[in-house]
Structures are given as structure tokens and as C-alpha cells.
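Exercise 7. Predict the structure of Acyl-CoA dehydrogenase from Mycolicibacterium holsaticum.
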Amino acid sequence: MHFQPDSATEAFRAGVRAHLDDVLTAEFEERIYRSGVAHDDDFARGLVDKGYFAPSWPAELGGQDRNAWQEQALNEELMRCDAPVYLSETTRMVASIIREIGTPAMKDRIVRGALRGDITIALGFSEPECGSDVAAAATRAVRDGDEWVINGSKMFTTDGHIADYVFLLARTSPDKPKHKGLTMFLVPLDSEGVEAQAVWTLSGERTNITFYSDVRIGDEWRIGDVDAGWQVLGLSLQDEHASGWGPHIARLLHHAEAWASNASSADGSPRIAKPEVRRRIARVAMELEVAMLLQRRCVWMAENGQTPVAEGPMSKVFSTEALVRASQDIVELVGPDAMRSYFEPTAPEHGRFEHLMRFSLGTTIYAGTSEVQRTIIAQRGLGLPR
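Solution. The predicted structure, encoded as C-alpha cells:
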């Protein structure tokens, strides 16, 4: 077994990289960073036009019938460049769920529009008082004839202020156990009674707290059966839990090597000549190798019809915690100058070290905290009791 991409995958990767090099200019990158919003309509439509939005989907739906390795190559390149694709990713995730279990009308209305870049979908899972316990959702959806009336709030609804829809988890049967009384809805965010308020993260990203006050939607916006929301949610969480963050380590390694090659020590020699500098950089490179192998194992399993139940969380928890370790280590190596702000002209590598350290801390929370991932590994991978 090996995880080295074949020549067709590498040719596909080269095309992706050329496209990203062309469109992700320094001006574009700075504008996205200063906005705090990891989405740009023109960039997203450019991915659609190039066939990079959902390459493994069938061609008749807007994909290219590519395999999982080629899609992984695309994901690695997008992450390596820190491309603004979060809303595109959540849109594609929800579209894949609707494609699997949605009604024919929902599929026709949403899936094709999503893959054309005409529709965007945010996620509405977490709540202010629930932490990582998504199943404890208190947002209520009460049936009123052919409609549902939704009241409550959601936390960390990233891009909820610009998306067209939110994939919302709501409690429909409060008398049932918490995992069995939930239902999933696709809520148009232009509905009366929806409000989004900005919340800024440590990394400078804008997320939102969203409020739902007597929001009325028709039953046609329900996804899956009533009170079967936890099973529907599981389809999306499995994809999230299998995420790997290794390419961000690769980005850090690239800038660390560039700094070490160009910066001079007190004796005038390049920093890279110092054994301590090489040792720290080598440690980052080793963590990157492990992170990429763990992620590619998940791709290999999916390509061979296996589900990476515990292997996905293993990839996620290792790669994010390795990113935190590596970011802090490189900041210590570079010294006080590493804390100069992102895009500060005098900062080493334009402030990437400072930003990556701030950014890394949130990755251990995104898509399920490290504690959640370890619980999945223990229970589903090792068979340990709850």
C-alpha cells in the first residue's frame, strides 16, 4: 500500500496550482484577510468554470467524474494557499446530503444551483449554550399545518450573513431523548425573522451568531424525516471529521524555510546553516509527513469502499495539534519579529508566522474539538465504553 499520487493526479494538481497562482494575487489575499470573510463570489465561480468546484461529482451534475485522489489533490492545493473556500465547502457538503436523501424537488432546486455557484449554504449546528454537544440543540421548530415555526439561535454560523441558506438543526420533539428529537431544515436566510450578528475569531475571521424569531418555512424545506435529524447530521459530520489540515503545515514549512534561507545570523551566515534551525524545521517537516499520510489513508479507504470512521478523526486531531505545535515552535525560532502582524511590511514573511499561530488554535475546535475526536477514536475505533 502506498499513498503516492499517480501521474494523472499530479497533472491535475499542476493545473489547479497554475490557476491559483494566477488568481490569488497579493492584493486579493490581503483584501480577503482584511474582510475576515473566507468567500469571494468571483473566485468561487472561477472554480466552477475550471471544473474545480466538485470534480468527483458526475459530469451531468456539473462535476468531472474524477477520482478521490484527484479531489484530494485539489483540496490540498486550496488549503496550501489558504484559498477562500469555506462557504463553497459547506455548500458542497450540504448539496451532497440533499443529493443522497433530498426530495426530487429539493434536488432540482438546490443541487444544480449549488454546483453552478449560484447558491451558497452555511451550517447552523452549534448553539451558544451547548459547546461541542451539538445534540443538545434547543432551537425549536414547531409544526403549524404545512409550515414550521422556528425560534432560537445558533453560534458560529460562518458566512451566515452572506449565504443564501442555512443547514439548520432544530428540536422538533422536546419530550424525546436529545438525539432522537431533532430534525434538519434548509432555511432561506432572507426569511423574515432571521438576523445575523458578527463574531470575530482570534484569527481575524468573521463568524456569526444567528437569531431565528418566529421564522416560518414550508415543510418542503425539511431534509430527511421528522426527528431523524441526528442521522442526517451524521452524514455531514463524518465528512468534517475526516478533514486533514496538513497543507497548512506545508504552508508554514514553506515560509520557515524561506525565512531561514534569507535571514542572517549575528556572524553573517544564513540561519539555515545553524543546526538548531535545521532541527526545528526538520521537526515540522516530519509532522507534515505524518499528517499527510493520515489524511491520504482516509482517501485510500474511501477509494476502496471503506468508511474512515476512526481514521478520519485520527487525521483531524493529529494534523491540527501538529499545526499548533509547529506554529509555536517556529515563532520561538524566529523570535520577537515573528509576532509582527500579518501584512506588516517589515514582518518576516509578511507576518505569516504570527497569523498562522493565531489561526492554528482555532483548528483544534473546527469540525469537532480534539476531545470529540478522541472520543470517536476511543469508542468507534477501539471499542471502548462510553
